Fold this protein.
Amino acid sequence: MKTTRIHIKNLFGISETELDGRSIEVTGSNGVGKTSIIDSIKYALTNDSSRDYVIKNGESEGEIFIETDTGLTIDRKKRVNQADYKNIRQDGKPVQSPEAFVRELFTPLQIDPVKFTQMSRQEQNRIILDLIEFDWDLNWIKEKFGEIPQGVDYQQNILQVLNDIQSEKGVYFQTRQDINREIRNKTAFISDIAKDIPQGFQAEKWEAYDLSEAYTKITKAQEYNSRIERAKLFKDSYDNKVRGYQAEMEIAVSNLKSAIAAEREQLTSEIERKKAEIKAAEDKLNSLSDKIADKTKIFESEYREKVAKLDSDIKVADEYTGKQLVNISAMQAEVKTAEEMKKHLNEYKRMKSMQNELETLEEHSKALTSKIELARELPGEILKTATIPVKGLTVKDGIPLINGLPVSNLSEGEQLQLCVDVALSKPNSLQIILIDGAEKLSEKNRLALYEKCKEKGLQFIATRTTDSDDLEVTYL
C-alpha cells in the first residue's frame, strides 16, 4: 500500500501543500517548515502530536488528507471551536474501529527511523519485540500461571513479560530464593533437634503415657512389699521377743528375790536390836512369801498379755509372710523410660511442625520452579506460532536478535536497513518511511538508506537541515 496523494492545509507551519506519492527530501535551515510535512503525516496516522499547536497560527481548522493505491483514504481535521473530524474509508466505505485500523498500517520504526538509531538498548528491544504478532491478554497469563504474577509490566511485549516473570530479579525467583533459604534453615533446625531424639521415638505412646498412674501403682506395690517385709521381720523376731519377755520376767523375779533377801538379812540383823518388833517383823516376814506370789502373778499376767498381743500380731504377719514380693523393677524401668521420653515430646512436636512447614515450603518452591521454567519455555512455543515480520529475527532470554546479534550491536546503517525491512514486513501496511533529521546520519548511511528505499519500492519523505534559508523539495 502506497500513498498516491497527500494534501496538507493549515497544519503546523504549512499553509497548503500537496504530495503525489513520490519520495522527496525536504531541505533548508531551521524554522523553514521542513518537519511540518512529516509531523502532519504523523498526525494523520497517530491522531497525536508532540507540538502544542497543531493548527497553523491564525487559522480555525487544519486538515490532512491521505489517499492510497488500495482505495484507503484518511481525512483528519483539527478544529478550534468544534470537535475534531476524522473520516477513514476503504473503497468509499467507513472502516470499523478506524483508529485501531490505522495503527495496524505502520510501525514506530517507519515514522522515525533516525530516532530509532539514537534510542537506548531497552527502547530498541521493546520496539522490535512489539513487531512480533502474538494474540495474548491477562487471561492467557492467568491460564498459564494460575495467577497474574506480580512485579511485571504488562504493557510490554509478551516475550519481555515472560522474561521478567522468570528473571532472577523477578518475584518468582526472589520468592523461591527466600523459600529455599528458609528450607535450608528449617532442615538444619530439624537435624539439630533430631539428633537428641531417640531413634524410633513413639511420640503418641509417650504423649498418652500416664506417669501419675504409674507412680501410684509403684507406691502401692512398694507399700504392699513393705508390709510383707515387716511381717517377715516381725515373725522372725517372735521367739526373740518371747525370750525377751521371759528374761524381763525372770530378771524382775531375780531382782525381787535379791531385794527380799537383802531385806530379810537386814531384818534378821535387827531382830536382836529390836526384840520388841520381832513379832511384827516375823509377821511381816511371813507375808513376804505371799507378796512374792502376788507380784509373780502380776509379772506372769503381763507376760501372758504381751505374748497374746504378739500372737495376735503374728497372725497378721502370717497373712503376708507366705506371699511373694511384687517385682516393681520393670515398672520402675518403664517409668524411668517414660520420664526420659516425655522430655523429648516438646522438641519432637516442634520438629514435626517444622517438617510439615518444610513440606509446604518445598511444594511452594517446586511450584515456583515450574512457573519459572514455564516462563522460560513459553517464548519458544510462542515463536513457533507467532508472526515474525523480519527475516533473521530471533529472541533469546527476552532479547531480540537480528541474525544472531542484539539490535544494539548493529551499526547505524544496519539499524536503518532493519527499519526498511520492517516497513516491508507487512504486505498490507503503508509502504512509507518518514525520515526526520537525515542530517544526523552520516552521508554514506543517508544515501544508502535512500537507495535502499528506492530499490525496495518504498516511498520515503525525508528532511535534512542545510544552510539554505529557503525550503527546497527534491523528488528522488
Observations:
- The chain is about 55% helix and 15% strand.
